Every structure is written in structure tokens, then in C-alpha cells.
Amino acid sequence: MSKIGYARVSSKEQNLDRQLKALEGVFKVFSDKLSGQSTERPQLQAMLDYLREGDIVIVTELDRLGRNNKDLTEIMNAIQQKGATLEVLNLPSMTGIEDENLRRLINNLVIELYKYQAESERKRIKERQAQGIELAKKKGKFKGRQLKFKKNDPRLQHAFDLFLNGLSDKEVECKTGINRRTFRRYRQRYNIYRKKEEQE
Questions:
Q1: What share of residues in the chain are helix, strand, coil (percent, to 5)?
Q2: Is the dihedral of CA 147, 148, 154, 156 positive or negative?
Q3: Taking Cα atoms as reference points, which of 113, 118, 94, 92 lies closest to residue 104?
Q4: H or E element at residue 50
Q5: In sequence order, what are the beta bridge partners of 6?
Q6: Whole-angstrom Cα distance, residue 9 to residue 58?
Q7: What are residue 28's DSSP bridge partners?
């Protein structure tokens, strides 16, 4: 039986030190610097492959494993299928319960309750955001996503000229640095088409 740690932060700029400090003493630690919105994380998959029967996966918080109920359930099932268990450091400890089966059962129940609470809180936050946007729209204060370029922006106008002179969206991107998908949206917004396109 080995204790296997898993740590995660959402981006390369963020620091893993706090989690790694809490995971000191485990046999091996796997860590990712990627969003938890996907289970396609190299070190998460490596950790699941590495697990053996009787191992204990340790994380500082449950959301280090995943950000939504579906992904968490999928990962927890993968851990259980290996015959391993999950321990979450910020949840109540079950170490005082001697019966292993009872300890595992209560631990799983606590995790399920935590998952439900976290998912419910995320839904409430989304609902409040939607209500806030709706209220701001009614008051005329919601502006939505701000445009990166105004129509008279010199860089955008230069990109339009290049396009009208025969360059493709990709070539315009190379010349101006404006992402081709972004440029395409601006062309459609301001009806910038070549004569051949207009006829079609």
C-alpha cells in the first residue's frame, strides 16, 4: 500500500508549493498545471495508470481532481476500479475508524456530499450572474463583451485593405497579427467582402 499524491493548478503561472507542502510524506506525487475542466491531463492519467490495489490517492481539496460532478465521479470510479481509495485533506479525517470498510463507506459519503454542495454552489453562482446580467440589461447598463477594435482602428483598416487586395485571412493574420477568426468576425460585422464574394 502506498500513498500517492495529486496536485493541480489551473495555469503555468500558478504555484504548486502550498499543495506540495501539504502532500509531504507521500510515496509519490503527480502534478498538472492545467485547467480542471477536462480530465485529459497527462499527470492525472499517469497517476491513474500508476495506482495499485490498496493505494491511497491524496489531494488537498476535491476540486484539484476535477471541477464538476461528472468528471469527479469518473475519476473516483477509475480510482476505485484500481482497488485504491481517495483521501481529501480538507475534509473530515476518518483515521479514528478502525473498520476499513466502514471508514471507506463514510469517506465516500462525505465526498459525495461535498461534490453535491460544490456543484450546487457553482449552479447558484451561474444563476446569480445570469440574473445580474438580465437586471443590468433592463437598466441599460450591460454592455456585453467589448469589441477589441473599433471600425476606424488603423490596424483593422489596414487588414481590410490587405484582404480587399487579394490576401487570404491567414495571410492577413501573418501581416497584421490579428487572429484570422477574429478578423473574419469583423469582416462579417462590417460587411467587408470582395466583389466576387458579393456576387455569390
A1: 50, 10, 40
A2: negative
A3: 94
A4: helix 42-50
A5: 30
A6: 15
A7: 4
Single pTM value for the model: 0.55
* Rounded Cα distance, 65 and 90, in Å: 13
Query: CB-based contacts of 150: which residues, under 8 Å, 6+ apart?
Result: 156
- pLDDT for 33-63, tens place per residue? 888 777 789 999 999 999 999 999 999 988 8
- Can you list the alpha helix ranges (DSSP code H) found in the chain? 17-22, 42-50, 69-81, 100-138, 154-164, 169-176, 180-189, 195-199
Tell which residue, 21, 20, 26, has the closest CA to residue 4: 26
Catalytic residues: 10
Task: Quote the mean pLDDT of the chain.
Answer: 83
The amino acid that residue 156 corresponds to is L
For residues 168 and 159, give the distance between their C-alpha atoms in angstroms, rounded to a whole number: 10
Question: Would you state the cell numbers that stand for residue 30, as one nine-digit string?
Answer: 503527480
> How many CA atoms does the CB half-sphere of 49 hold within 13 Å?
7
Q: Which three cell numbers stand for residue 28?
A: 509519490
**Residues 168-182: tens digit of each pLDDT:** 988 998 888 888 888
User: What is the grid cell recorded at 101?
Assistant: 470498510
> What b/e sequence results for 122-155 when a residue is b if at least 16 CB atoms lie within 10 Å of its CB, and e otherwise?
eeeeeeeeeeeeeeeeeeeeeeeeeeebeeeeee
